[in-house]
Amino acid sequence: MRAPVVLIVACLAAAAEAAPLVAVDVGHYLAEPGATSARGRPEFEFNRDLAVELARALASRGVGAKLIGADGDMAVLSRRPAAAPAAALFVSVHHDSVQPHYLEDWAHAGEAHKFSDRFAGFSLFVSRRNPQFERSLACASAIGARLRAAGFAPSLYHAEPIPGESKPFADRANGVHYYENLVVLHSATQPAVLLEAGVIVNRAEELALRDPATQRRIAAAVAEGVHRCLGARAL
Q: Are 34 and 47 in contact (CB under 8 A)?
């Protein structure tokens, strides 16, 4: 059984006192939980599970982690980066969907749901409005490189020239896109990266992303990318 989130937060906060600090943001909140998976699970729950694993993985590498939004009550997005002003990096953890015209109907456990198996993989986003954009991009590229080395593939979906997407690549090989107006990226004073860990409307990828072993692999890869990015400056 996993330790309660409150206990994990307390332990990580204690560890962070003597280590470089990374803000690990749980994307979305209970009132607006984000996308819905192919089997009806809210994105917020995926985000919280992975954020907790990422905080653990960072701590194991000597990097402090402060979980933000884990209680599901933080609705004002601009307050999230400000909740960890001393952080060397802000990482917002999310899981992906697709544009509505790609969704299809199916039934699972006697209930109607939406899915799309057309796309899979991770994506990373940075904003040129962030005051430390170059550092943000360096960290996003490092995270993407470690995810690829761990066997995960970037999704190219967000660069498609369709309504709601058209996010140009900042680093195509490592799955990094520009997304200028994401609030948590451009309102941060520290370098900031948003991770879409995988596509939860993809039926096979959803099952993988719900697996604690997959969550640990993703978290370990992201933590290693963060460690490498911060290493020259903070470790």
A: yes
Token duo for residue 186: 């451009």
Q: Which amino acid is at 112?
A: A
Predicted pLDDT at 234: 42
Query: Within 13 Å of residue 162, how many CA atoms lie on the same side as its CB?
Result: 10
DSSP H or E segment with residue 144: helix 133-149
Tokens of 24: 């690990």
Q: Which residues contact 15 (CB under 8 A, 6 or more apart)?
A: 59, 64, 65
pTM over 0.85: yes
Report the alpha-carbon distance of residue 160 to residue 138 in Å, rounded.
Answer: 23
Q: Which pLDDT value is given to residue 231?
A: 83
Q: Are 130 and 185 in contact (CB under 8 A)?
A: yes
Tell me the two tokens of residue 162: 């369709």
Residue 67: how many CA atoms within 13 Å on its side-chain side? 30
Neighbours of 164 (CB within 10 A): 11
> In this structure, what token pair is assigned to residue 168?
């140009």
pLDDT at position 5, please?
56
Q: What are 93's strand-pairing partners?
A: 26, 195
Residue 52 contacts residue 70 (beta carbons within 8 Å): yes
Q: 16 pLDDT band (50/70/90 cuts)? A: very low
